[in-house]
# Entry
Amino acid sequence: MPDYLIAPSILSADFARLGEDVERVLQAGADVVHFDVMDNHYVPNLTIGPMVCQALRNYGIQAPIDVHLMVKPVDRIIPDFAKAGASIITFHPEASEHIDRTLQLIKDEGCQAGLVFNPATPLHYLDHVMDKLDVILLMSVNPGFGGQSFIPGTLDKLRQVRQLIARSGRDIRLEVDGGVKTDNIAEIAAAGADMFVAGSAIFSQSDYAKVIAEMRQQLAS
Ligand code: DX5
Ligand code: ZN
# Structure
């Protein structure tokens, strides 16, 4: 069985008690903290920045923090996130003027790097940068909000990317973000994903451990 990672999106966490809530979801069995950064410019919503990432580290959160940048421009915020304790930094290729430079910047800052594809973003952005990627993130909703429904066309796109990764011979994570629930996670995994972002599916429940265990059970079946 591939090693699957479950990454709760803290967009749906309790922002008034963020440290506590993040600690609780990690204790419940989550692997990675998915940290959604929105700028009310690239996407129509506004969330959190490097200060909050640093605050989580200061609070004692040690799990990898997966920073999903939905901002434009991208580059100037990257060193701030690296200093604030980000482990992975992903960005949308349409939001960067120089994709290779942005990927290199993330790596030079000591983080893992990834590209994010919106549902209608073509995969050709991968053509010349596979050697710089640690993660490919496919959005299965249009970015900006939690709680949307999974767009079924993502399954086919996942299969295509899984093939591209196999052909590259590189160890690249295939992450999926948006509308992931216990009842669709198995078919998403079957299409090739190995890292699952889930916001509302986890944080809307009172027992995080139960949802995460159900997700792992689905992944094992
Ligand atoms: C959407 C964000 C997602 C979102 C997922 O723009 O990137 O990470 O929080 O939330 P759910 O799992 O509720 O679709
Ligand atoms: Zn996200």
Summary: The chain has one domain: 5-220. The radius of gyration is 16 Å. The chain has a mean pLDDT of 98. The helical segments are 18-27, 50-59, 78-83, 99-108, 154-168, 185-190, 200-203, 208-220.
